[in-house]
Structure formats: structure tokens, C-alpha cells
Design brief:
By secondary structure, the chain is mostly helical. Helix content is 85%, strand content 0%. The radius of gyration is 27 Å and the shape is rod-shaped. Keywords: Membrane, Transmembrane, Transmembrane helix.
Length: 62
């Protein structure tokens, strides 16, 4: 009987619901930020690679 009572109390409690929701929202925001950083990093690496190749081809050869 005791496990049923504990389970009933846990399922009826709404005390931690908002903190779980905030945690999920925060996790979603962190995921979006990480994806944006990764996309920006890829573009930045490509930009610097293009600049380096143009710079090396523009230098006079001795």
C-alpha cells in the first residue's frame, strides 16, 4: 500500500513542474545557440581559407 501512496503523491504533485519546463526551455535555447555557433564557425573558417588562398596567390614569386 505504501508504494501506491507514494506514487500517487508524486503523480499529483505539480511543485516541480515549472522548474522542469524551465529546464527544457533552457536546454532548447542552448541547443539553438550551439547550432548557430557551429554554423558561424564553419562560415568563418571558409572565409579565412578563401582570404589565405587569395593572399598567397597575389604574392609575387621570386
Amino acid at each position: 500500500m505504501l508504494p501506491q501512496r507514494i506514487l500517487s503523491t508524486i503523480t499529483k504533485s505539480e511543485r516541480g513542474t515549472s522548474s522542469v519546463e524551465y529546464g527544457l526551455i533552457l536546454a532548447f535555447i542552448v541547443l539553438i545557440v550551439l547550432i548557430a555557433i557551429q554554423a558561424t564557425a564553419t562560415q568563418t573558417v571558409q572565409l579565412w581559407t578563401d582570404i589565405a588562398s587569395k593572399f598567397s596567390s597575389a604574392q609575387p614569386k621570386n
